[in-house]
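WARN no homologs supplied; continuing
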Amino acid sequence: MFYDKRDRRRALLRTTSLGLIVAGVCLAPLSALAQTAPAPPPQASEGTVPQARTDAQDSEIIVTGSRIAVSGFNAPTPTTVLGEEQIAANAQPNVFTTIAQLPSLQGSSGTQVNTFSTSSGQQGLSSFSLRGLGTIRTLTLLDGQRVVGANVTGVPDVSLFPQLLVKRVDIVNGGASASYGSDAVGGVVNFITDTRFKGIRGNIQGGITTYGDDATGLVQLAAGTSALGDRLHLVGSAEYDKEEGIGGGEFGTKLANGRTWFTQRTLVNRGVLNDGMPQYLVRDWAQSTTFTKYGLITAGPLQGIAFDQAGQPFQFQYGSNGVPAKNAAGTILGCFPGFCEGGDLSGNVDAGRSLKSAIERINGYGRIGFDLTPDNELYVTANIGQVKTNNQPVNGQNRPGLTLQCANPYVPALVQQACATAGITSFQYGTSNAALGNTRVYTDRRQYRFVLGGKGRVDVAGTPWSYDIYGEHGTNYTDIDVRNILLSRRFNQAIDATTLNGTIVCRDATARANGCQPLNIIGGNPSAAALRYIMPENGPFQRTRQTQDVASINISGSPVDLWAGPLSIAFGGEYRHEYYKVTADAYGAGFDATPPGGDYPNDPVLLASGNNWYAGNYKNGQGAYSVKEAFFEANLPFLNSEKLGRANLNGAVRVTDYSTSGTVWAWKIGGTWDLPIDGFRIRGVTSRDVRAPNLSELFAAPVTTTLPNFFDPFTNTNVLVIQNAIGNTALKPEIARNTTAGITLANPGWAPGLNLSFDWYKIKVDEVISSLAATDIVQLCFQKVLPETCSAFNLSNTAGPNFINVQAFNLASIRTEGFDIEASYRWQRPLGLPGNFTVRALATHVINNITDTGLPGTIPVDNAGNNLGATPHWKWLAVQTYDSGRFSLLVQERWFSAGTIGNQYVVCQSGCPASTAARPTIDNAYMPGSFYLDVGATFDVIKDVTLYGKIDNLFDRDPARSTIFNNPALYDQIGRVYRAGVRFKF
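OK structure emitted
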C-alpha cells in the first residue's frame, strides 16, 4: 500500500500537534508535543484526526469534512480544529464563545444576542453561523451525530453539550451536505468527545466584569475508567455554570453599572425625499416627542405639558430648542419628525435592554462502551442538561398615541381647567409607563438525548472495513414565560376612568363587570388593584416539545490498491424524524385555540382571536417531517511521483427524500495535490448543498391580525382582510453551490515551524426561504410575477371574511465570496530562554455578501462591510504564546474592520439625489471597527494542578454607537472581564 507506518506517524503528528493552526496543513514538529501548558486557540488541521480507540485502531482517521475513515486520507475542504488545550486556554465558561471568535464564524447567537426580544424564543440560545449565512445554515454535530433542536428553527443549543469531555472541535469551512445532509450549507461544527478518557479532571472558575456585574461561577468534573480487562469503558461528566448577566440600565441613557457608551443614537427619518438633503439623519441623544417617563400631552393646545412621578404638571423641555406648535398633528417646531436632540431624555427606554442574558446551566453526560472484540465496540450515551436564561427586553412598556378625557378624575385640576379654557374635552397622550415596572422573559430549555450504537472494523475478503451504526432519540422541552407585561385592551379600558357615585371606576360597564380597575397613568402611582388587572400574575407563556429520532449506518474501507495508492470509499444511509408541538396561553393564542380558564379566564374585553398582550403573543402549532437518505463517497489517489508529487480526487453524492418536499440531490467533487516543492499543497472542492425547510418554516403556529383598509388591486377598492401568518408546507429545499480553492505551506524543511494557507470561497444559495408581506403577496399575483402566491389569499370571499396567508416562499438568493488566510510560526528556545514562543493568526475577508429578495423593483444589497449586521469586510484573530513548561503567557488580539449601518444607503450631506426605498439617502452610515486585547497566564503549582487567569478586553473597549443598538454578535458590550480558576487531573 502507498501509505506505510512512517506516513501514518506523520499524519498523527500533523493532527495532534499543539502547534497546528493552518486549516488543511501539518503545522508543528514533534518537539511541539513537549508543551505542557495549554496553548490558546485556534488550532487547525487538514481534517485528519486519529480516533482515540484501541491500539489496533490507531491508524483509523476521522474526517469531519468527509465520511471516509481510513488512514492516509486528506480531505479537500478546509477544516479548522480546536483542541481541548486551546479551548481551556481561552478560559471561557461556555466553549461556544471560544469557537464564535474564529473569523469564519459571523452572526452567531449567544447570551449577548436577542436580549431585546420578547417573542422570538431565541433568548440565550448558543448557536453558530458560518460565513454569515445564519444559524439555520450551519450544521452542529456531537461526535458526528445530529442533536435535537432547542428551537423550532432546528438549531441546537451548544450550552447543553458535555463541554469538559470535548477533545476537539472541527469547524468545516465549506459545504458538507453530501457527507452530512441538510443544513451544512455554510459548513459544519463537530464536537468530538473523549470516549476513552481515564482518570479524573476538574475545573473551577470564577469571573466578574470591571463594572462589578456578570458574576460567573463554573464547576466542571469528568471521570473515566475501564474494567473487565480494559473492555468496559465508563466515562461521565457533570458541570454547573451560573452567569448573572448584565441587566437593563435606567430610563434615559444610563446603562447598567456606570457604562457610558450609550448615546441613544437614532436614525431619524425627515420624510423628505428630493430636496437635496439626506432623508435619514443619524443623531445622538435623540428624544422622542411622543412619550415621556411619566406622561406627556403630545398634541393640541395643551401640547408640552408633562407630569412628574407625583402627577404634577410641568413644561417639558424639548431638545433642539423645540417649541410645540400645539396643533392636532403634534408638530414640534425646530425638531425632526418624532424626535428632538437633547433636552429631557429621562423617558427614553432603550437603555433598559439587557446587555447579556443571565444563564444557569446544568449538564450531565455519561457513556458506557463495551469492546465485543479489540476492534468492535457497543456503546450507549446519555446527555441530560438544562439551561435557564432571563433577560429584560426594554425599560417600561411605552404607549404613545393614547387619548385621555379631560374629565378623567386622575387628570390634575389645573389641566382640567386648561382643557376648559381651550375648549377641548380630550387630549393626546404618551407615556413610557415607568410606573408599571419592567418586563422580563424567562426561558427554560431541557434536553434529553440518548444514543445506542456500535462502531469498529471487520475484515471482508481480506480487506478491513470500518462501520459506525447508531440510533438516537432526543427530546427538548422549551418553556418561555413573560412576567410583568400588560394586556393592551385591559390597559385601554383601565385608563378610561370616570367617577360613579363618588368612586373612581372604569367608564365601560362591561369592563367593570369583568373586574376592570381604574388605572392612573398621570405620574407614577398606580393602584395595586389596577396593576393586577392590567398585568395578571401569570403572563404569556409558550411550551414547546421537540423530538428527533435518527437511525444511521456508515461504512468505509479501501477495497482496491491502485497505481497511486488505495481507492477508499464510504457509503451508508440515514433515517430521521423531526416533530414539534407548541402550546400557549389563551390570551395570546386565542380562546378558540386554547380554551380559557384557571389563570386565563374568559373576558369579553379581550379579543377571542388572541394577540391581547403588549408583546409575547405566542401561538399553538405542531408539525413533523421525516427524511430518508443514502450517500456514497470515494477517494481516488491518481498521482504518486517524486517529480510531480501526489494527488487525489474526492467525490460524494447523496440522495435525500423529504416527506414534505420530495427528493433532492447533493454532491461534491474535489481533490488535493501535494506538490513536489517541499511543504506545498493545493486543494479545491465544489459542491451542491441543500437546506430543507425547518419545522417553523413549514408549520409555523398561525398569527392572525386584522387589516381594515387593505387595497385590493383587482377591484381598486379598500377591503377588510384577515392576515394569517402561517407556515408553508409547499416549501422546497434551498439549493447552494459552494466552491473553495486554496494553497498551503506546511512546515517546510527550509523554514521549520512556518505554516501558511490561503483559501478562496464562493457560495451561492438559490431558492432561499424568505417571508413576504401581505401587500407583496397580492401584488406578485396581480402582476403575474409569482403565480404561486395567488393561492395564498382570497379577496372576494362571499361566504366569510377575506384573508391573506402570509407565508414564506422560495424566492430570494444569497451570494457571498471571500478568502481565509491562516499563518503560524514557532520558535524553540527564543533568545536562549527555555520553552517555545508561537505566533498565530487567522483572518477572513468577505469580498461580497449579496442578498436579493427576488421581488420586482428591488435592488440586491451587498451586506459585506455591514457592521450593524454580521459580515465585516475583515475579521481576524491573532495569538502569541510563550510556554516555559511550567509557566505560560498568552496574548490574543481580536479585530474587525470599519463598516456601515447598511450598504443600501447613499451617503451625502447636500446635493443628494432623490431618496428611494431601494437607495435611501443618509448623512452618515459609518460604523467603526474594533480591536480587543486579551491576556492570560497559567502556572503549574504541582504536576497536575494548574492555576490560571485571563483578562478579556484588557483596555475596556466600548462598542460602537449605532442606530438603536450596536450588533452584540460583533461588538463587545460587556467590557473588561476578569477570570481566574484552577484545573486539576488525576
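Confidence is low (pLDDT under 50) at residues 1-61.
OK
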